[in-house]
Amino acid sequence: xxxxxxxxxxxxxLLDEGETLYKQNEASAYDLADDNGYAYHKVAAWVKGxxxxxxxxxxxxxxxxxxxxVNVSVTGKGAAGLYEIDSEFYTVGENVPDPESIRNxxxxxxxxxxxxxxxxxxxxxxxxxxxxxxxxxxxxxxxNNDGELxxxxxxxxxxSLKPLAKTAVSENPPIMRxxxxxxxxxxxxxxxxxxxxxxxVNKVSNGVLVVDVGGGTTDISFINSANEIYMPGxxxxxxxxxxxxxxxxxxxxxxxEIDEEHIRVDMLDKALRTNKFTVRGESKDCEGLCxxxxxxxxxxxxNFIDELVTTTLDHIIFVGGGAEALREQLL
Length: 331
Description:
Elements: H1 2-10, E1 20-21, E2 30-36, E3 40-48, E4 54-62, E5 65-67, E6 82-85, E7 88-92, H2 111-124, E8 131-137, H3 139-142, H4 151-160, E9 166-167, E10 176-183, H5 184-193, E11 208-213, E12 218-223, E13 235-237, H6 241-256, H7 265-274, E14 276-279, E15 282-285, H8 287-308, E16 315-319, H9 321-325
Parallel strand pairs: 2-8, 8-10, 11-16
Antiparallel strand pairs: 1-3, 2-3, 3-4, 5-7, 6-7, 6-9, 11-12, 12-13, 14-15
Helix pairs in contact: 6-8
């Protein structure tokens, strides 16, 4: 039992040989940032290299969870990727056949989110460390309609991660010292505006638009010359890469005469990344179908962006896994 848990910790997806996780001093906590996306959780932490150099390392983890014990380890010694919370078991993995939905407003403080964040913590090697966690919220959940912080939702998210889920082989869940929550799209603006030393490298004159394309939603933030969010020009639209998945599933089903229920999410994800789809053991080129599905969703996003943009912008920043998937179709 101890050996299995320790293997999760020692085999941190953030570390290469000779690297260690870094914190400023003995009294401080380690820092872990987790961007919980539609298909992957993207994690980041400070690391110290062999030569003592300190830098930020990033990695990604499949973020699909299904209620119940789904995948059995090939060793026969238990279920793979199994987590427990409130006497319920969830299986986390890239190829769970029927992942729980994340397309609802309550997902950010749900059991599923807790399980996936916990998985990111374990896989990053933080389970037995004193750590501080940073996560994000879509713009419309982070702020109220009047532009004030949505304290009620922010507190719900924090409460939902107390306690964190534990692995099936651990006796206790991880314990974090502090949980910080930020508006997801604004992090990209800060990254564009300042360098790693905090020095200003870009200035806003007419405005900057940040478009954060996620799985279920797309955050659009208009930043004015005072470095403030212009709320009438900002919004969250319920369109994202999961809509590309939905459309692509329809196209693949029709083109290759396959029931939609037999096309799993991980198969769609692979098809979008490789432009290949396996049909009855034969690899098919599905680039045309993928582009058609992407164009369908990108058109909706482009129309929505056009409605919000009423001035000449300095820059449009596209971020998020969805923006990468739709990079050839967006504007």
